[in-house]
What we know:
The protein has two domains: 2-132, 3-Layer(aba) Sandwich (Rossmann fold), CATH 3.40.50.2300; 142-246, CATH 2.40.50.1020. The chain is α/β, with parallel strands linked by helices and 250 residues long. The protein is 33% helix and 31% strand.
Amino acid sequence: MIRAVIVDDEERARNTLKALITEFCPELTVAGEASNVPDAVLQINKLKPDVVFLDIEMPEYNGFELLQFFREIDFQIVFVTAYSEYAVRAFEVSAADYLLKPVDVDSLVGAVEKVRKFREHAAIQQRLDLLKDALNSDEIRKIAVPMSDGLLFVEIADIVFLEADGAYTNIFLKNGSKILVSKKLGFFEDILNGRKIFFRTHRSSLININCIRRFVRGENTIVMDNNSVVALARDRKHEFEEVLKGLRLA
Length: 250
């Protein structure tokens, strides 16, 4: 559920927006509201909303000045105002959206959809960052591979190489098995980025250096322990040879 705070000095405007949200945006809940910026700051610090629907023209402080009260903005902003001339400035401060009063239902639904997408992207990136940090720890030896019926936990050291297959990735393991995963190769490259034993040899391949059997310089190919032959892109050859030197393999 997406949590929201509405900030507007007009009670009628707050009630109208809250009613529209309740009726047309079921994935969003109004956790709080405020009639001025100081009260809004208190509400935001207390409720930790995902999004703030923020009026601009208010007494004492305007909506833009709300941002000055926070060292870090960890919530999204949707400006709701009767004045179209503020639109450019609204997007300059990275607002998720800008709604004109009286609020149109389609515009509101569209704004909430943007908030949802931004929120999901941030959540995915946060989980990915946490996973990458965890993988840098010697205590973590497995990755969770998403499958149709759940997760498959794979020993990182058991991965020989990964190969792109359109929107999918094939993971080749030491035991000779192959796992097809509905994730692009770049997804796994990001996750395994902290592991120096993995190297992107080509736009279609990510290999475990510890599983190399042979490097054929003249053909720009790499033979893996499972006898698979992996291509090495010309623009990756120098870096690859430097990696091998660092591992005292060349």
